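Hi team,

Below is the intake form for Thioredoxin domain-containing protein from Actinoallomurus iriomotensis. Please confirm the fields before the structure is written into the shared record.

FORM ID: S-0412
PROTEIN: Thioredoxin domain-containing protein
ORGANISM: Actinoallomurus iriomotensis
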Amino acid sequence: MEYTLLTDGREGRIDLDGDLRAPLTAPVLGWVRRPYGWCRDDSCVPAAAVREAETDRGIDVMAFAALTGKIAVADREERVLALADAAPLPATGQAPDFTLDGRSLSDFRGRKVALVFWASWCGCRYDLPAWEERHQALEPYGLTVVSVACDRDPEQARPWQRDLTHPALIDAEGIVAERYGIVNVPTVVWVDEEGRIARPQDTQTATDLFRSMNGIDSEASWTALRRWVVDGDRGLTDAQIGEYLRVPTPEEQRARAHARLAVWLARRGRTEAAGRHLSEAAVLAPHDVAIRRGLMPLTGVDPFGDAYFALREELETRGIPVYRPLAAS
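The structure came back. Fields below:
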């Protein structure tokens, strides 16, 4: 049976039997079987490590995915298989590179970057003009604001990007949000001139429009940003970065694989099937508002309506924070 394969924003095809086994004679998830193991480019998984996943009938794709650093989720009824990285974000070190709308993070090497994750389904959309002002004020000092819309429908984000001069990108497939462990917006990540994370995921605002709801002081983030860019303040130590960096758990990544399936199904009008995977994602990562609220528009639910406030009440009742500002200044 032919399955649709979803991975890293790309769509492919893979032949699987009823037990989700793939033939040994064909490439599997981009890997090819050799006498000494399964290989892709210069990387190989030794034959001994794969042996338990192989039978005469083929290779267990779910188990093989785990051996190659992926988490796999399948919908047998819809014949779709989705992959997510098992560990997308390093504990410390380089910020994951990405390319959206023809722009890559590495394009800005040699400059400080403030990655601003936002969405049209969040009130933080009203902060974009203020982030533009920060970009214009600090651009001469070596800062580039790069805003990343976490909208699965690009047309929902584009009206809010008008008149912006800073790089304004759209993460329609959720790849960048996945790589940076974004569980809600607004979230800001600082990247230094060498491409290293200088401040991990931080709830920051550029206005106080919703301060009564989020409790975040926009002036504090502006002051910290100026110190980092203009005054040369190093900011957080390596130890603090390691402490505050939120590295996704396997459950979160499995939730993101379910979300990838849900998005694909919802775009094709298979709302009921999409809802099943959204429910699975909510169980695995109840705190991931970027999935639970962010995918509401795809299933015809108002992200500013009763469903959102019910979600907030659920999280507050369970003691799960909606916003996650860093404890460090």
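SUMMARY LINE: The longest helix spans residues 250-267.

Thanks, M.
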